[in-house]
């Protein structure tokens, strides 16, 4: 919660000469979101200072919502109108008609915090203008010491920057204390995948990345280690937003995987795995598509979110850094909302005339920096083992970025018996490091 800047009475700013920055639609949408969703209401109340509203009546309505929330009352247009009528504020804020209008004005309650950020941003602008006006007044003050005035101006700017949050900061820890804390991993699969991990899997076209991600998804939902089927894990909730394949194609791919889980006596339970296909892709730079993702994430609160492929997440130039950044913000918001791991797939670029193809994700370089883990599937060097024949399809699992933490991903996978991909140890693997120059299966 932010606190208001305490201005000194002598430095009261002059009135705004131009219309101060504000966004009436965002203000209405924040209030509307509070009326439609208790979750949005809680998030907005945690974030927004009532004084941030430019329109006085919006501040009064928001205060009414805050009072009702604090006493656990249900909040909708009818109950809020009654509450404001009881406090004698209803007529002043526009009557019951205006309260209903607020609920109708909001495009989606899922964006409540986003609207609140706009309101907060405009508030900060107004406070900045006030601060500037105060500094001008101070500059003309004849009695005060100039250095004192400069110090006060700096203190005021610092206060505006921190807006009361500096007092909430915990003391920064000494390294000797810092290393004493226990490392608490929040594993989804011990050693392999932790909640919050972001992973991008790459390969060339037809390289097997979709198949591997589907296998991982089914295994995680069934409680099977994706690369060690004899090891069982706690089943987790998986949400797949497939922005590439249509439903029939997807169904055909998942059926054998469900059968494999059944054969392992770890058949999927209802509610563990949700999937939605949008073969036309989504454009996460647009509010409607962003809300589409967030509604599903908020409703299902998955442990693992699989969304993509990357190039289907916005409609613009795939190399555009700003568009990629906007997409990553939405995915990060989904990840923070559900506290989930995020797995995505991306194509790797076409190779040059010499050397192996790069495995980095095609498109904006942001996708190289964004995930904690990036792996690519590359056919192994031994031609027989790399062939697309039963038992072959040997792939090297190559990290294309430095891992941000230790994880036990396999170095080699090949076409398996029970599952499409299984990890293996090449015949010429080094006894200690597991390194193999050929990846030979036979
Ligand atoms: N381990 C496997 N065993 C048998 N078939 C496989 C295996 N991996 C992939 N395939 C098959 O190879 C084809 C391409 O695989 P997949 O769709 O997973 O590749 P991809 O890298 O996602 O390709 P794209 O980027 O073109 O979608 C599919 O028909 C798939 O069924």
UniProtKB/TrEMBL annotation:
GO biological processes: DNA replication, synthesis of primer
Q: Provide the reaction this enzyme catalyses.
A: ATP + H2O = ADP + phosphate + H(+)
Residue ranges of the region described as Disordered: 1-20
Q: Which UniProt keywords apply?
A: ATP-binding, DNA replication, DNA-binding, Helicase, Hydrolase, Isomerase, Nucleotide-binding, Primosome
Its GO CC terms?
cytosol; primosome complex
What positions does the domain DNA helicase DnaB-like N-terminal occupy?
A: 20-121
EC assignment: 5.6.2.3
List the GO molecular function terms.
5'-3' DNA helicase activity; ATP binding; DNA binding; hydrolase activity
Principal EC category: isomerase
* Source species, domain of life: Bacteria
Q: Respond yes or no to whether keyword Isomerase is given for this record.
A: yes
Q: Which InterPro entries match?
A: DNA_heli_DnaB-like_N_sf, DNA_helicase_DnaB-like_N, DNA_helicase_N/primase_C, P-loop_NTPase
Where are its TM segments located?
Answer: none
Name the Pfam families on file: AAA_25, DnaB
Q: What family is reported?
A: Belongs to the helicase family. DnaB subfamily.
| Name this polypeptide is given | Replicative DNA helicase DnaB
Species of provenance: Streptomyces hoynatensis
């Amino acid at each position: 919660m932010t606190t208001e800047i305490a201005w000194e009475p002598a430095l009261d700013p002059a009135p705004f000469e131009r219309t101060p920055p504000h966004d009436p639609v965002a203000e209405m949408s924040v209030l509307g979101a509070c009326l439609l969703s208790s979750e949005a209401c809680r998030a907005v109340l945690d974030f927004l200072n009532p004084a941030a509203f430019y329109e006085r009546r919006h501040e009064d309505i928001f205060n009414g919502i805050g009072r009702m929330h604090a006493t656990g009352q249900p909040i909708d247009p009818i109950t809020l109108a009654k509450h404001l009528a009881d406090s004698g504020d209803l007529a002043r804020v526009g009557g019951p008609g205006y309260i209903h209008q607020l609920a109708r004005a909001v495009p989606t309650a899922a964006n409540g915090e986003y609207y609140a950020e706009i309101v907060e941003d405009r508030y900060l602008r107004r406070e900045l203008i006030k601060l500037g006006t105060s500094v001008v007044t101070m500059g003309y003050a004849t009695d005060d010491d100039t250095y004192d005035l400069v110090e006060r101006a700096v203190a005021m700017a610092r206060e505006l920057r921190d807006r009361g949050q500096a007092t909430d900061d915990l003391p920064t820890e000494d390294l000797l204390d810092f290393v004493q804390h226990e490392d608490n991993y929040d594993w989804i699969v011990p050693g392999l995948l932790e909640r919050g991990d972001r992973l991008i899997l790459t390969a060339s076209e037809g390289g097997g990345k979709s198949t591997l991600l589907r296998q991982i998804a089914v295994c995680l939902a069934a409680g099977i280690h994706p690369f060690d089927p004899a090891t069982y894990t706690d089943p987790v909730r998986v949400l797949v937003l497939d922005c590439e394949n249509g439903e029939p194609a997807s169904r055909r791919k998942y059926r054998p995987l469900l059968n494999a889980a059944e054969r392992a006596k770890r058949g999927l339970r209802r509610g563990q795995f949700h999937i939605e296909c949008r073969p036309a892709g989504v454009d996460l730079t647009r509010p409607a598509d962003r809300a589409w993702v967030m509604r599903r994430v908020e409703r299902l609160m998955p442990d693992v979110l699989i969304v993509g492929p990357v190039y289907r997440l916005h409609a613009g130039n795939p190399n555009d850094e700003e568009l990629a950044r906007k997409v990553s913000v939405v995915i990060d918001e989904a990840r923070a909302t559900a506290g989930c791991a995020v797995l995505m797939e991306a194509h790797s670029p076409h190779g040059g005339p010499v050397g192996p193809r790069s495995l980095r994700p095609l498109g904006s370089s942001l996708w190289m920096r964004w995930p904690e883990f990036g792996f690519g599937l590359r056919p192994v060097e031994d031609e027989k083992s790399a062939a697309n024949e039963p038992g072959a399809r040997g792939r090297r699992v190559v990290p294309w970025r430095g891992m941000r933490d230790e994880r036990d991903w396999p170095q080699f996978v090949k076409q398996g018996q029970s599952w499409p991909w299984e990890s293996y140890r090449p015949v010429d693997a080094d006894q200690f490091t597991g390194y193999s120059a050929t990846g030979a299966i036979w």
